[in-house]
Amino acid sequence: MAKSNYRIKPYKHPRLKFVVRSKISDRWERKFFVTRGEAQTYVSLKEAELLNQGREGVTFSSALRVMAQRGHDELLPYGKTLQDAIEFFLKHLEATARSVPVPTAITELIENRRLSGASVRYCNDLRLRLGRFGRDVPGRNLAEITTAEIDDWLSRLGVAPVTRNTFRRDLRTLFSFGASRRYCSDNPVILSTKAREIDGDIRVLTIEQVKRLLASAVPEMIPFWTIGLFSGLRRAEIERLDWAQIDLNERTIEVKARHSKTAARRPASILPNLAAWLQPHGRPAGPVCPQNLRKFLEEDRDRAGLLKDWPQNASRHSFGSYHLAHFKDAAALALQMGNSPNVIFKHYRQLVKPTEAAGYWQIAPGVANAGRSPSRRRRA
Description:
With 380 residues, this protein is mainly alpha-helical. The chain has 17 helices and six strands. The chain has helices spanning 36-59, 62-75, 82-98, 102-115, 120-136, 147-155, 161-180, 207-216, 222-231, 235-239, 272-278, 293-303, 314-327, 330-337, 341-348, 354-360, 365-368, and strands spanning 6-10, 18-22, 29-33, 246-247, 252-255, 266-269.
């Protein structure tokens, strides 16, 4: 006779005198009875059920079977199984349990980037843009944010496409960081809509405008203006520049990797007219730009009559356009500016005529300073 899967044992209890022990689903179960007859009846019923339905059927309740069938039917049109649904939801639950509030994730990201060597300016930009997002989703954990919510938030910013995509880029950085720390199961920003950016016309300064600007600039601003106009460095790169990175003898400027937009170190050449501009101001070390740079910028442009008509990235775009037109070397220009040759051709080709470009590289201190007002003496 086969050994029963259910065992009846005496049980010490004031009323329940027998216990039925079984191990059908890999764990011991107990059922208590007043009389042996009741226990025996229960065993007989369970043995018959086990014989008719098998071990799995006994441990799988009718309610659970109905639920499983309904779930299977609802998933079928999507080509998914119950196992797919279980794995997906478990992943979500685990991420939610580990998640943190959005402001906490932002703070951790900024600190991570700071310790990784990111610039103060970059960290401040993250704090401003992501901080706005954090304030607009109060009390939410990172794992709760959906792609639809991100799209809605971006569309409500009311900013230009380029600025919207900048916010989107920073959000993508935030959620990628969160996913790496298992605060969210995936990055919902990846599937969000990127705004279509329409390239505006590149505008450059005329030779006369450049001369007027340099003639109007206070002496301590001359290095800032001329490095931008005649070497093509980005404004942020010039702001972080130290005189120790400028070698007037070798005619080079070192753009350090931590100061570069592309996070790559590059040398920038100093052409003869730029060397002439920098020579009187050069020193062994120290910041190239003065304090209160923005104030000086506006004052210089105002005196030159350019405050209200200043093209975007005017200095850098002017350098790229006049350089390509005059020297006709896109590869060298790409290295100088930290761009690809494709970007150089896209933005700077045929913006100025070669005859105009020749005059641009003749702008020297004596030429631009003619007519400088005596009142513009070096400020203390």
